[in-house]
Each structure stands twice: as C-alpha cells, then as structure tokens.
Amino acid sequence: MSPSPSDSRTKRSGRRRNPSAVSSQRVVDYRNLKNPFPTMSLFSDDRIEAMHHAALELLEADGIKVLLAEARQIYKQAGARVDEGSQMVYLGRELIEQALSTAPKQILCKAGHPSRDLTLELGRLCFQPGAGAPHATDCERGRRPGSADDFAELVKICQHFDVLHMMPPIIEPQDIAPHLRHYFTMQTQLYASDKLPHIFSRGRAQILDGFEMLKTARGLSDDEFTASSHCYSIINTNSPRVLDSAMAEGLIDCARFGQMTVVTPFTLMGAMAPITVAGALTLSHAEALAAITLTQLTSAGAPVCYGTFTSNVDMKSGAPAFGTPEHFKASIVAGQLARLIGLPWRNATGSAANINDVQAAQETQFGLWGTLLSGSTMIIHAAGWLEGGLTVSYEKLITDLELLQMTAELCAHTPSDDDAIGLDAIREVGTGGHFFAAGHTMDRYQTAFYEPVISDWSNFGSWTEKGSRTATQRATDIWKQIISEEQDCFLAAGFYDEVESFVRRRSAEGGAPPLS
Amino acid sequence: MSPSPSDSRTKRSGRRRNPSAVSSQRVVDYRNLKNPFPTMSLFSDDRIEAMHHAALELLEADGIKVLLAEARQIYKQAGARVDEGSQMVYLGRELIEQALSTAPKQILCKAGHPSRDLTLELGRLCFQPGAGAPHATDCERGRRPGSADDFAELVKICQHFDVLHMMPPIIEPQDIAPHLRHYFTMQTQLYASDKLPHIFSRGRAQILDGFEMLKTARGLSDDEFTASSHCYSIINTNSPRVLDSAMAEGLIDCARFGQMTVVTPFTLMGAMAPITVAGALTLSHAEALAAITLTQLTSAGAPVCYGTFTSNVDMKSGAPAFGTPEHFKASIVAGQLARLIGLPWRNATGSAANINDVQAAQETQFGLWGTLLSGSTMIIHAAGWLEGGLTVSYEKLITDLELLQMTAELCAHTPSDDDAIGLDAIREVGTGGHFFAAGHTMDRYQTAFYEPVISDWSNFGSWTEKGSRTATQRATDIWKQIISEEQDCFLAAGFYDEVESFVRRRSAEGGAPPLS
C-alpha cells in the first residue's frame, strides 16, 4: 500500500498526476440536500404523544373557528360537528387520523428545470430566503417600502444561488396595485427564475390566475398540471384557533388542483400562544392538523406540508423575538411532532435585529441550528430576514447565504478511505515539515475546501490596507455585481408571449382583488 | 384536571397565586452544564478504528520527535525505542493502550470556590473564552499589544459571567518582563477570580512557582494540592510530530503534581497537517496519544484531557481559517476519536475575521456548533477570539457570551407536563384572543424566557430613536460597565499577603525566565 521513496518524490512534484483520479475530491451538490445532522429530542416520546392527544382533544371538544362557509361545509360533510352561528368546527380524531393517513409522505415539486425539481420528505433539506416582508433595505439605498424593482432584483439574487431551493414571496411590491400584484410576482418568478415559485393564497381569483399562468408558462395540460406540484402556497392560521377565509380557500383550491400547501401556524409564546414550549406547540399542532385535514377532505392525497413557526415575545414589551433559546426548543419539539405524523414539514429561523449586525447573524444562525437539529424539510426565512420579518436586507441575504452554503457543505460526503487518511503523506513530510507541497496536497488543493463568498481571511495588515471593510460592506459588492449581470429569461419565447398576453387580457378585465 | 370556569377567572387575575408553586418555572445553572445535543458522526465506526490504528502504526513505525531528554528517558524506561541522535521516540501500541487505560475518565478540578469546581468527563460541557492572543482590541481604545491592564480587565469580565467556566491565558501581557509575567498572571487570576486558573507550560521554574502560589492561595498542603487539579495547562504539540521541551516539561511536571494537562495538537489542514479531514485528524490523534502517554508514564492516573484544534487554511494564500465547514467536520471526527478512547477532551471554535462583524459572529457560531455536536467537554476560544487568535476583542467577548448563554439555556430542563401543555389556558383564552393576561402566563412570565445581554428586540422606529446602535456598540457599554465596578478580591487577607510575599521574594531572586 505504501509507495517506495521514489514514488513519494514523484508524488511530491505532484502536477504530473491526474487529480480527477483521486478518490477524495470534494463533490458538492447544493441543489439536492439531505440533512446530515442527528435529530434532537427535547421531550420524551410519551410527552409528545400527550401533546398530540391534547391537540386532538382540543379540536374535538373545543374546536376551531373557520371563517369560510365553504370550508365549514367540507368539514361538515365529512362528519365534523359545525356550529354555523359561532363558525366553530369540532373535528373528531378519526377525521384527523384519516387525513394523516392520506397526506403524502413524499411530495414531488416540479420546477422550471428538472435540476430544480424538489422532493420533499423527512430527511431532505431545502432552504428558502426571507419571505413576506413589507420593506426592503440595503446599505446604498436605505430602508424603504418594498417595490417592484426590489422584488425583481431579489428574485435575481435568489436565482443566483443554488442553495436557495425555492422562490419566496420575498418582499411585498407595494407600488403595484393589489388587484394586479399577483400577475407581476408570478411573471417575475417565471421569467427570472427556474426555481419552484410561490403563490399567495389571497382569494380564489388570484390563485386561479396563478395556476393559469403556470400552465401556460410550463406548457402543461390541466391533467399534467394537477399531477404534480408546480408551485406552493404558505398557509398561516390566525392563532389561537382561527382559520380565515383566504387561507381556507387557499387550502381548498391548492388541494383541488394538486398544488402544495405549507401549513404554518405562527405562534408567539406568551402572546397568541401559551407561554410554555409545550403549550404553544400543542396549539400550533392542533391548528396544523385542522388545516391538513381540510386539504385531505378536499382531495385525499393532496400535497401538504406540516409546519410551525413558534418563537417567543419579550414579556416586558411584547416585542417578538427570533433565534432565541425558546425558538430553538420550539423547533426541536415541532420536529418530534412532525416525525410522529411522518409528513414533510417547514420550519423557520429569523432575527429581530434592525440591521445586518452581529445580533442579526447570531440570531439567524442560532435559529437555523434549531431547524437543522429538528430535521426540518424546508427552512424558511433562512436568509435576509430582519426586524422579525418586516424587512429583507440585501446584505443579510448575501451573508446568510454564506452560512447556508457552509451548511450545505456538511451534507456532502467526506472521504475517510486509506487514501484520505494519507499515512504515506504523513510519512513523506516527516517531523516539523509542512504539507503545502506534498503530493497528497497537490492532488486535492484546488477543490479541497469550501471557498467563501464573504469571509475575508487576510491578516489584519492586509485587511486594513484594503480599507477595513466589514462583511456587510463586502456583501454590498456581491449583490450589486449580481443585479448588474444580464437578465436571463427562463421562458422560451412562445411561452413568454402567451403569459404576457394572458396578463394583458386579465388586467384589462380588472384583475383580481385580494380576498381580505 | 380541568378547573371550573370560576377557577379559571381566579387564575386570570393571576397575582394571588404563588408562582414558585408552578412546576414549569425556568431554572438554569450556567455553572454546571451537561451537553444536551445528540453527538454527530461523520465517519463510520470502522473508519474511526482505522484512523486510530493508523495513528498507532505511525507512532510505532515512524515515531515522534521529542526535544526534551528527560521525556525521552521516561519513554525509554517504559520500553519505547528511542534514537537519541535524531531525538525520535517510537511508541509501541501496548504502551499507548496501557496509558489510555490509566488516564482518568473523570477529572475533578477544584476552583477558588466549591460552586466553581468542575468535573470533566464525556457528556459535560465547559466554555472558555479566547486564549493566548498577543493583542487586545476594543472599539474605544483600538487594537494594541496586550498589556497587564488588558489582562486584568479581561479577567474581571470573564469572572463576571458564569457561563465561562475556566480562566484562560486570555491575552499576553507584553508590558511585563517574561521572567516575571507568570507571577502577574497567576496573581491576577487568584485575586480577581474564583474560577479554575490556567498555568502556562513555559519551563519547570515557572510551573513550580505557579504551583507554590496556588498552594499558598488555597491554603493547601503538598498532599492536598496533588490530590486534585487546582489549575490546568494547555499543551500544544508542534505538528507534524514534534513535542518541544517546554511542552514536554509541562506534561511531566503537571502529571507529577496531579495537575491537569489539556493536550492539543494544533493542525491546519493543508499546512502542518494533511489536507484531508481524515489525514489531519489521524496526525493530530497520534500526537495527542504520544503526549497522553507521557503523562501516564510519569504518573499513572494523572489527569489529562484529549484534545484537538484542527481547521484549514486558504489554499490560495495559506491564511488560516476557522469556523469553516472543514473545521466543523474535523470537530465531529475528533469527537468520534475521543469517544473511542473515552477521555474528556477539549475542542475549539474560532474566527479569522479582523473585527467583530457578521463574519466574526458567523464563523464563531458555526465552529461552536461543530464542537457542540462533537460532544466536546471543554470548548476553548468560545468568546472574543478574532484574527485566528492574534487578538481578543472586548466587544466580541460580550457578544459571544450571549451565544454561550443561549446555548447554556438549552442545557436546562424544559417542562412538558400537563401543566406546561396548559390545555386549560388554551381553552380559557378562546379563539382569536391573546395569552398575555392568562393565569398560565401570569404565573410564569417573569422567568419564562431567556433575557438577552446584547440583543435589542425593539422595533425599527424605537431602535432608530435610540441612535441606531449595533450589537457591537452596545457591547462596548456592557464591558465598560463591568470593568467600572468595584474590584472583588477572592483571596482572604492572610492568603493574599502570603502570595504577595512569595512573589516579592521570587522576583527579588530574579524570577524565572521562560523555557523557549
């Protein structure tokens, strides 16, 4: 196994060898990640069962308020007790157990290019940047209400990085009228990205418009469209225990057309949920089960993700907080509940910081580790999210991307064969030497290590000479470079024209005001 | 189980109840932490065995260079093959296996106060701030060579936070002459702190001085001193495969007097170690085994920690990097090797950033999670460390402390009993309400959540009104407050006088120059 000394010297010169022949080249595929981390438990299995049963008891005895008559009707037809006066729906546990048995454990999402397709199931890992912010901010233009330009730029930045797996509703383009906004956001996602697009559940008319645009852009028949998920919609409940009309309609419409919903009660411990991790997650779980049940009653087998977003508030001020120890614990418990029911699920990190500073970095990463150790399938708000979701920062988007890429590196195989151990190289270098010129190093140095986007490892002197710039300042350069690059259009000309024509017609007809 | 409606109303008023009667009060003890995280594996158990055997083979066939004649003699007397000409020591595997069987799996360290005593064993968790930096920096006074004043201030700050379990050699007080420096650093640690102090292995004379000071300060007989570890010494090998005289003497002297050594090869992949994780850790492991063996040959049962500090360099510039994916992987593999031999062990996080910015926060936390998931017993450089260890930042010390306290929160019990689930509270609040005034909340709100040191959760408007200050700027306020507080002296007057008198006498005798 060990080469003769002359072999060693040949290796030392190094460049004659073929690096691709080395077994231990670093190979990464940021587009397809499996979670390599052990899952953590906070509570014993029997207490997780107890929470599940408390949630079932709550739905059966105390019910959930459902504001949409059509949804109440669906629940009622399936056998739920409904009080039309109070809009309360009481769900027997057999209804929920039935729904959990038909909800798919594996969901295939078809994107604009096959390499961007996603399979969602326990054990997989997808990232999404910050979503739903009313404001955008960057170090050059400051904080402002989100605009169409911001939306378009941010879609371009998100498209740029493979480690962001899905398009989010990253900011709200407030300069576009609400009845036309959904055309713009879907067009932008379809033209400037080939990743899985998001569709807002803001009423049937908007959803059906979105589905039409998707079918047109992808060249799909109705049946082809419904056969897979071509987009996804985030569904929040109004905690505690209210499912509003827009969200209920989204659940029904997506289920009917085979499109994926991602059910996410947003529960802040001490505010709209109990102050305890166990209590907040029991409430969140109950709400999620009710929403998941509606999808399965609408269409058994409809793709739906379980989810939660549970953090805490500052009990002195009521201010929401993210990336806290309590947020971390809530993630872990949510993961235990998700594994109990076996569905793919979404979770989120976040930060309440007001700028991209050390607090922002610290909270986002702390929250991220909670989501990673909880076995989350889809991690939302993983990049760019500030102010508890009121702002997306261009710079934070870039610096968080570094963190996500570093995490993705940990998903890749690391060689441990005898060649990687490299006893011969250790012998070759001897005592007190260095490995820079060893053959073992020369064979691997070009691909051995992750190369950072933002981190600057130069020494203090060099860094000072370059202007003592912070990571946030360097991030400005990166996003400016990305948005200055020529815009790709990801739709073939024919499809592009058809989508344009559809939007022109529908806009002329008056668009579709959101269901509030 | 569920109270009547009138009971609920009584609860709602809340203040009449005794919160201490609530089962789910948050109780934390930052001084005694057990690692709550699942341990991660990167390589299969048989490849870890293969690395261990490669290390044994290396020590047996290729040896390690030991610069201290006394150490070579100890190895030789135990049966190792020694070549005095080349200073090479060849260690048979039976010698190493014997040493691993006598090295204690549990080490008791006695600090200045019983509540600061530490038990080191697999499963425990201790943090230590950045150590060994030649420079100090803060936002008010800038970056400068470390001084006695810096050392004293930093000891005071480290003493302030329970989550830092041991005193480090945090910076080098360069304004004190090398032959007197060890008096100053030990005096400062003994006077301004009751935590476990560090002693440098810089030659026998300095070590014995330090032991005398410790015995004097703690009022211990020689036998009482040797019965437990009252300090610890970090031992670095000179990778690849050299054990220098000062380090070898430290291993021997600490072992003889029952004081704990912490063996830490510092191996940068691609520079002084193979470019692969498997190769670098095999080398590191071999060096650690050789050092551990010296302690056990000196005194079987001597307290010694296994350890590693393995990261990578930038292969373009040769610059060291920390908190990288490769550093993380190295931590995980080191943890697998530590569990194989069963010893308590040290690991480290770090950052190569030049200031306390997002890069610094990101790298330190990323590295920290590698150490946490590797089951490290003692995590060094966990706060304040910049520039790959060339500088300790006062502000980073504070912002990293937040991260360590958040981590310590995850070590505490989280209630999951029926009272914590709080179904009654969920019922009481009803649909669409809030939990702020619920009895379940009122009973717990004062202690429910971690209260941050640095994180500011106020909204953008309030934060702007307060001056738009970053986390780093707020950290300046915190350390200034701490160092402005009156200085405690942790030694009783009699012991203090005796230490002073010892130092005066030894200084007059010429002190003790370091062994280089």
Beta strand count of chain A: 20
Fraction in helix of chain A: 40-55%
Average pLDDT, all residues of chain A: 94
Low-pLDDT residue intervals, each spanning 5 or more residues of chain A: 1-17
Report the sheet-strand fraction of chain A.
5-15%
Main β-sheet, spatial strand arrangement of chain A = 1-7-18-17-14-12-10
Biggest interface pair, counts: A-B, 120 and 120 residues
Shape of chain A: globular
Oligomeric category: homodimer
Q: Pairing-aware structural class of the strands and helices of chain A?
A: alpha/beta
- Count of runs of 4 or more consecutive helical residues of chain A: 19
Cα distance spanning the termini of chain A: 71 Å
Radius of gyration of chain A: 25 Å
The main sheet of chain A comes to: 7 strands, mixed
Describe the structure.
2 copies of one chain form a homodimer. In chain A, 60% of the residues are buried. In chain A, helix 4 crosses helix 10, helix 5 runs parallel beside helix 6 and helix 11 packs parallel to helix 12 (358-373). Chain A has 19 helices and 20 strands. The first copy, chain A, is of the alpha/beta class and 516 residues long. The first copy, chain A, is globular. Residues 1-17 of chain A have low confidence and may be disordered. The longest helix of chain A is centred in the middle third of the chain and has 22 residues, at 277-298. At the A-B interface, helix 2, helix 10, strand 16, helix 11 and helix 12 of A face helix 2, helix 10, strand 16, helix 11 and helix 12 of B.
